[in-house]
């Protein structure tokens, strides 16, 4: 990794902590490539692969620390912008003003949030993600996941997953690390309310920390037909991230869960996205 990349990543961190929001710089609309539109996706995915090839080298050298993680995530955001993506990030003041660790609960649309979110959260909180066990051996993300704090679940046995998330999540939160949970069983363009479980709320209740809702729309990158993480890209679609105000979990946590669902649903609707199921 170049010194330039690290300096730019730290400058990005400084901008986030001062502005508490982020909007990609205005630039000319991406030129339509017609039948050659696949070239844009190839450029984007090649850029992401280069980002994580550098991360692998850092891991092998034993120098992949917090700043390295931040830098690789920032570089992924930069590659996305270079491919025509435009970000709008709001609500970062809710991370900045909430002391201590939190449980961040959001919808899950594509792998783009997995690679970009660390760069948005790390300036404010140390962070770990709840991920599928298969991500630990993923050809792109595997080495990163094995090198950073995370909770890997199998998603074959919900009861075992619950026990693991509650126990390992409590350890991480006890160490001051915030935990990001995507309660949907799988990545999907639509927000599936019925498939949005209360696992994150249960973890927050167990540990006594607040919940921060997260709504996102990352269908700039679609899931691929043959390789799910390498689908087409759509420069005309804005990439949205919105963090909500902290919620205290009381009683059985239903009120907090409903508040998260309503926060996500309202933003998805405002951004022109699709909702499956009824908003409580």
Describe, in plain words, how this protein is organized in 3D.
It is a single chain. The chain is an alpha/beta fold. It has one domain (3-24, 32-276): Glycerol-3-phosphate (1)-acyltransferase (3-Layer(aba) Sandwich), CATH 3.40.1130. The chain is 43% helix and 15% strand. It is built from nine helices and ten strands. It has helices at 3-19, 38-61, 66-82, 93-96, 112-121, 142-147, 158-174, 199-207, 254-270; strands at residues 22-23, 86-90, 103-106, 127-132, 150-153, 178-181, 191-192, 211-217, 238-243, 275-276. The strands form two sheets. Strands 1-2-9-8-3-6-4-5 form an eight-stranded mixed beta sheet, sandwiched between helices. Helix 6 (142-147) links the parallel strand 4 (127-132) and strand 5 (150-153). Helix 2 (38-61) packs antiparallel against helix 3, helix 3 packs across helix 5 (112-121) and helix 7 packs across helix 8 (199-207). The longest helix has 24 residues, at 38-61. The chain is globular and about 50 Å long.
Overall spatial form: globular
Q: What would CATH call the architecture? A: 3-Layer(aba) Sandwich
Cα-based radius of gyration, to the nearest Å: 18 Å
Distance between the termini: 47 Å
Number of separate helices: 9
- Enumerate the strands of the largest sheet in spatial order, edge to edge or round the barrel: 1-2-9-8-3-6-4-5
Strand content: 15-25%
* Topology pattern, helix = H, strand = E: HEHHEHEHEHEHEEHEEHE
CATH level-3 fold name: Glycerol-3-phosphate (1)-acyltransferase
Specify the biggest β-sheet: 8 strands, mixed
The overall pLDDT, averaged over residues, is 89
Pairing-aware structural class of the strands and helices?
alpha/beta
Low-pLDDT segments, ≥5 res: none
CATH class: Alpha Beta
The overall strand count is 10
């Amino acid at each position: 990794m170049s010194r330039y990349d690290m300096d730019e990543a730290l400058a990005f961190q400084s901008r986030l902590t001062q502005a508490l929001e982020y909007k990609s710089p205005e630039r000319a609309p991406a030129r339509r490539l017609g039948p050659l539109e696949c070239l844009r996706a190839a450029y984007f995915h090649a850029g992401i692969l280069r980002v994580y090839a550098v991360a692998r080298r850092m891991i092998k050298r034993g120098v992949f620390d917090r700043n390295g993680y931040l830098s690789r995530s920032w570089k992924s955001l930069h590659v996305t912008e270079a491919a025509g993506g435009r970000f709008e990030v709001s609500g970062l003041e809710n991370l900045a003003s909430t002391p201590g660790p939190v449980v961040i609960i959001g919808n899950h649309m594509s792998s783009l949030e997995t690679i970009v979110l660390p760069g948005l959260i790390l300036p404010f909180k140390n962070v770990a993600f709840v991920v599928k066990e298969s991500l630990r051996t993923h050809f792109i993300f595997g080495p990163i996941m094995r090198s950073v704090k995370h909770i890997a679940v199998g998603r074959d046995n919900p009861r075992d997953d619950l026990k693991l998330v509650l126990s390992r999540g409590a350890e991480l939160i006890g160490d001051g690390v915030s935990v990001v949970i995507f309660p949907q069983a799988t990545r999907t363009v639509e927000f599936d309310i019925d498939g949005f479980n209360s696992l994150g709320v249960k973890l927050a209740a167990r540990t006594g920390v607040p919940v921060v809702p997260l709504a996102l729309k990352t269908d700039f990158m679609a899931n691929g037909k043959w390789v799910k993480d390498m689908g087409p890209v759509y420069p005309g679609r804005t990439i949205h991230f919105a963090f909500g105000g902290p919620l205290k979990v009381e009683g059985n946590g239903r009120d907090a869960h409903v508040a998260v669902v309503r926060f996500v649903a309202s933003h998805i609707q405002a951004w022109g996205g699709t909702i499956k199921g009824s908003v409580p």
